[in-house]
Structures are given as C-alpha cells and as structure tokens.
Amino acid sequence: MGKARNNAAFGNYAPNPPIGSVGEALVVSSGGNGLEYSVVSGSGGGGSGLFASSSNAVSETITQASHPFTSGSAIYLSGSAYALSYANTASTAEVIGIVESVSGNDFTVVYEGKATITSHGLGNGGDALYLDSGSGANNILNTEPISGISKPVGYVVDSNTILVKIFRGAEVGGTSILTKQWDVIAGNLTLTAGRNYLINASSVTGSFTFPASPNNNDNISLAIGAGDLSASSSVLLGNGKNFRDSIQTDSGSFELNTNFPGSLNWVYNSSLNIWILT
User: Coil, strand, or helix at residue 144?
Assistant: First the structure.
C-alpha cells in the first residue's frame, strides 16, 4: 500500500500512486502518515460490476433479470431498476447511458465515451444523436424531435461506433399552439402522455381515453381544429383517474361541450391521482 506525503505548504498529495488495470478499483483511506491507497480487483455483487474506465469510455456491466435492452438502447434509472428511456416525458428522458452489449441478464452500459454498436444504422460520422419518443429497444435516432423532449445523447463516429455524450434535455415547442406538433383525432382514441391533440369538432364525436398508468407531471393538450363542440357528445375518460377543474371537480369523465374553452392542458398529479387542468 502506498502513502501520501504530508507537506505544510502543499498539503497531502500522492507522488507515486499505484497503477491498476481496467476493472480494478483505487481505494483511498486515511492512515497515520496521510492518505493511503491501494488497487483492488473483483467483480460486482448485487447485480452490478465495477466501473471500467479506459482511454475510450467509462462503462459498467450490470445484471438485471429479464431486461429488455439490446445493443444501442438508451436507458435511465427508474427507482432501483434500469428501464428504456424515451423523450415523451422529462422523467423518462433522464438518460444515464447507452447499452453497448448484452449477454443474457448482463448488459454493459457506456456512460461516456466510445461505444461499439455494430452496424447501428444511425447515420454518418458527425451526425448528432437524440433520444426517441417512440417505443421499443431501438430508442435513439439522428433527427432532432420537434415535440416532447429534445435530448442529445451523442454523435456517430462511424458505421460501428458512436460517441456517448449526454447533454441536458429541453422541452421542444413551448406552450404556443403555433409551435406544437398536433395529432389530429379522427374518432375514439386512447391518448398518449406528452402529446397534443387537435379535434375537428364538425366531424368527430367519440370517447377519448387518458392513459391507465401515467407518471407524475405527465401532460396532455387538446385544442379545437374546426367547428365547435357546443352540441357534441364527445367525452374525456379518466381510465381510473379523475379530472379536476373549476367546473367539474374530481370527476372520472369530462364532457367536451360547453365546458371546452377552446384548448385544454391537463397535468397528472400522482399524489392526488388526478388530472389537473392548467
């Protein structure tokens, strides 16, 4: 075990620290003559291995039973488990890294640096990569989204390599109806959190069902594209959750007739188990 020298002018420092290998850890402790340090090796327990650092990347091999990941999956930490990351909401867009390889229940995630993703098909060298708002394990793309969360996660190096570099995300579009991307409702539909819906009131009548398992602060926006809903029988259904506003308080449904002010933005509060009109 090496020791750090104590010098009144310069404080404790380590002139000759031990050099280990990838997969080993540097342990620093306080000794009688200053800081003491040593290199130890070993494999992780409880589902996680040691961090591995090289000149190209910082990565970790993790064990999680029945995970859904493939090479190239962007992931985030959901409670104590790792999950696929999507740009639909701020919480699911908190990417921590990109999976480089998978072996059964084990996967290696690159937190920063180069990751080998063979034949990734994500574009050409220098193309920026972003988190996708779709579904499935292939959840990064080389086109910046125009709605939801814009979350840059790295760059393409070549056809088999990407550079993982995760940046702070930003909500795209703001609150203006002119800058949002809107999905046109054509009939009965189960709505998706993080999306904006345009209703053609002159031709659409139906039930619009909210998500069954929303996350805290999920939002859904609706607006009238044409006509008016004063005689409409269209209704929002809470799918086990209530709606709250100044007109209909804590109701499991919301009628889109005279209650519709032209546009609605609902935000889910998980502690109250309700969608709140904002």
Answer: coil
Q: How many CB atoms lie within 10 A of CB 263?
A: 13
User: Does residue 177 fall inside a structural domain?
Assistant: no
Query: What pTM, to 2 d.p., does this model score?
Result: 0.48
The set of residues, in sequence order, having a beta carbon less than 8 Å from that of 75 and lying 6+ positions away, is 69, 82, 83, 84, 85, 95, 96, 97, 98, 99, 109
**Same domain? 217 vs 265:** yes
Q: Quick one: 156 and 207 in the same domain?
A: no
Q: What is the DSSP letter of 211?
A: P
**Summary mean pLDDT of the chain:** 75
d(CA 49, CA 58) in angstroms, rounded, equals: 13
How remote is the C-alpha of 102 from its chain's centroid? 20
As a whole number of angstroms, the distance between CA 74 and CA 53 comes to: 19
User: 218 lies in a domain?
Assistant: yes
Tokens linked to 3: 């020791």
The tokens for 7 are 């010098």
- Rg, the chain, Cα only: 25
Question: Over the range 119-137, which residues count as b (16 or more CB within 10 Å of their CB) and which as e?
Answer: ebebbeeeeebbbbbeeeb
Average pLDDT over residues 227-247: 73
- The mean pLDDT value for 48-77 works out to 82
The answer for 213, left when phi > 0, alpha when psi is -120 to 50, beta otherwise, is: beta
User: For residue 276, what are the CA distances in angstroms to 28, 194, 236?
Assistant: 51, 14, 13
Do both 22 and 65 map to the same domain? no
pLDDT score for 3: 40
Residues 153 and 199 in one domain: no
Instruction: Give the domain range for residue 269.
Output: 183-277
Ordered alpha helix ranges (H), 158-259:
none
Residue 35 in this model has a pLDDT that exceeds 50: no
Indicate if 72 and 27 belong to the same structural domain: no
Split into its structural domains, the chain has a count of 3
Residue 73 sits in the same domain as residue 152: yes
Residue 91, in any domain of the structure: yes
